[in-house]
User: Fold this.
Amino acid sequence: MYAIKAIYDGTNFKPKQPIPVSENYEVIITFIEPVKKDTVRPPFEYESMSGKIWMSDDFDAPLDDFKEYME
Assistant:
């Protein structure tokens, strides 16, 4: 089961995040509250953060702080 937020514009549902499925799913749609016009944002795009986030080459290297627990 997945839960995502979306905006309904009277005709279409616009997801506010990527939908992590690629096959047919049965869905339940719950209308929570009206959205104020100044809070509607464009949908999430995978490329929107491209080049803005980096990860250290040794990201998953063991930490010295936990060395005694890893032995």
